[in-house]
Amino acid sequence: MIAVPNYINPEEYLEIERQNPIRHEYRRGLVYAMAGGTDNHDRIAQNLLYLINSHLRNSPDCRFYSGNVKVNYQNEFYYYPDAFGTCDPRDRSDRYAKRYPKLIAEVLSSSTQTFDLGEKFTDYQKIDTLEEYILISQETQRVECRRLTGPDTWETEVYGEGDLIVLKSLNLELAIGELYLGMDP
To answer: What are the phi and psi torsion angles at 102 (to 5°)?
Structure first.
């Protein structure tokens, strides 16, 4: 990520973002252009979206979104996760940003991995409704699930080749191999 070294307020960011074809993330006054992803990154994200959307298709309450919708916390940050789900009715009023996700997923890239594993997770932990944070590797069949198990207590479960991934927040189990269908070597 490369920041434009000029503080802007959240309102300015949102105005710029609505008029700009290039997506940007916002964190405490700094704006970061989103880098393009690889074909495998996109494939994993699409597979995840398909699997979870199929699971939620008859849910009257839950919605699942791709990386085109922002997650926001008190104007402190606006991020574009690769995928996230919300079952909170308060998230129905804003078409551009959601504030009450219960699951957030990121497909790891070499350029964003350190941030996704560290500071971004710290930021996401501020969201009271967040129950699971999923980190998916592009390099190998590896999924890290960080799950809220108590007040301010997060436990990590790692899934590998052949495993069944358990997403407790959505009451869903899926084979890890399903995430990696159609990958190019």
So the answer is: -105, -20
The yes-or-no verdict on residue 2 having pLDDT over 80 is no
- Check whether 47 has a pLDDT greater than 70: yes
Distance, CA of 25 to CA of 68 (rounded, Å): 11
Measured between alpha carbons, how far is 107 from 134 in angstroms, rounded to an integer?
A: 8
DSSP 42: H
Closest CA to 53 of 140, 158, 178: 178
pTM of the complete model: 0.91
How far apart are the C-alpha atoms of 106 and 116, rounded to whole Å? 7
Domains of the chain, CATH where assigned: 37-179 (3.90.1570.10)
Query: What is the pairing mode between strands 77-79 and 24-27?
Result: antiparallel
* Band of residue 113 on the pLDDT scale cut at 50, 70, 90: confident
Q: In what order do the strands lie in the sheet with 3-4?
A: 3-4, 30-33, 24-27, 77-79, 70-73, 97-98
Q: Alpha-carbon Rg of the chain, whole angstroms?
A: 16
Distance of alpha carbon 54 from alpha carbon 110, whole angstroms: 29
> What span, in angstroms and rounded, lies between the C-alpha atoms of 35 and 2?
9
Q: How many CB atoms lie within 10 A of CB 128?
A: 9
Structure tokens at 185: 């070597």
